[in-house]
Amino acid sequence: MAVNEAPLRLGVIGTGLAVEQLHWPALRRMPDRFVVTAFAEPSPEQAARFAAYSEVDRSRHHTDHRELLARDDVDAVLVSVPIPLLYGIARDALAAGKHLLCEKPTGTDEEQARAFLALEDEFADRVVLVGENYFYRDDIRHARALLDDGAIGKLHLMAYRRAGQSVPREGGFSSTPWRQRPQYRGGVHLDAGVHDIAQIRMLCGDALGVHGGVQWANSTIDSPSDLTLNLTFASGAIGNYTACYSEIPVPAEPNDMRLYGSEGVLVLSGPEAQRRVTLVRADGSTRTDVFTGIDNGYYGELCDFSDAVRHGGNVVGTVAQSVTNMRIVLGALDSAERGAVVDLDPADEPGVPLWRPRGGTGLFDGMPGVRTSEE
């Protein structure tokens, strides 16, 4: 693939909350990599809002994504639409000759996941990245590097907890009607939960089996509010993940991941504004790395995508990786229905590669944010 250092001409399909709050803050910091040349949005109000904050001319707006895909001044597209619409628009984009950065998950169910996998083979000359930003998050990548260096020895147990109130609030993701009445299996656990599964796989490796249970305890969403699952990993480790999206307020929760090894413990904790990775060594000493000003991985994700288009090579956030994340959630739902352990199919791409910025020598070269260490 020829090297081209000109900014990618990007078309944005869907300009809702994910673009406004997640993707655009990263894109606006990357004028050397991306220029938005067109956008597609059926809602006039939402289109006007995007044009206002992005300063993309309204003449570049289309109500139909197929009109955008017909443009010659679009090299690649960012698809950020409701989950039931992802596959059809992704396929249209690839068929139109565009490179594709598509929001997760890979469809609504196992059938669409298989269809997404087939796209990679059918359009092998296109770059396809599914937006699993946790693969690119600085604190998670740092924790993975510590594990790769043997900081806690052999991992034997993972414990991961996420709990908080989730009710419709104006301007929040929970207010979206298609999320309140999801037309995809598992609701919030297939939407938000695949991020946590990505973190689990990034740090614990691939899973062999899952035993899950669910509860419906939130009347504001038409899907399970609670999911707990036990995992067995290919490494021999075991783990538990619990997610609670509560209708009522809950006390302050220690929403963290703890990894117990033969020579230490690793803890990932803290809100987005201040992520913390704490290593507790066998002698009781500790080291905490604090990450501030990081953007949850969207900047790195966009770097990986543009580098693959410009220079060739593989991305970390492949369709196969996203499908593997999705299948763990679907397996947990199957297990809950059957009341039995479900064996998981082998991953199409075993293991998650550790992404590093292209041309850098470390994990954080050129990345936004600050890392400080406390012994």
Which secondary structure elements does this structure contain, and how are they paired or packed?
Elements: E1 8-13, H1 17-27, E2 34-40, H2 44-54, E3 61-62, H3 65-69, E4 76-79, H4 86-95, E5 99-103, H5 110-122, E6 128-131, H6 138-148, E7 155-165, H7 177-180, H8 188-191, H9 193-204, E8 207-215, E9 226-233, E10 238-246, E11 257-261, E12 264-269, E13 274-281, E14 286-292, H10 298-311, H11 319-338, E15 342-343, E16 370-374
Parallel strand pairs: 1-2, 1-4, 2-3, 4-5, 5-6, 7-10
Antiparallel strand pairs: 7-11, 8-9, 8-15, 9-10, 11-12, 12-13, 13-14, 14-16
Task: Please give a structural write-up.
- The chain has helices spanning 17-27, 44-54, 65-69, 86-95, 110-122, 138-148, 177-180, 188-191, 193-204, 298-311, 319-338; strands at residues 8-13, 34-40, 61-62, 76-79, 99-103, 128-131, 155-165, 207-215, 226-233, 238-246, 257-261, 264-269, 274-281, 286-292, 342-343, 370-374.
- It has 375 residues and is α/β, with parallel strands linked by helices.
- It has two domains: 8-134 and 298-316, Rossmann fold (3-Layer(aba) Sandwich), CATH 3.40.50; 138-295 and 327-353 and 366-374, Dihydrodipicolinate Reductase, domain 2.
- Helix 9 (193-204) crosses helix 11 (319-338).
- The model has no long low-confidence stretch (mean pLDDT 96).
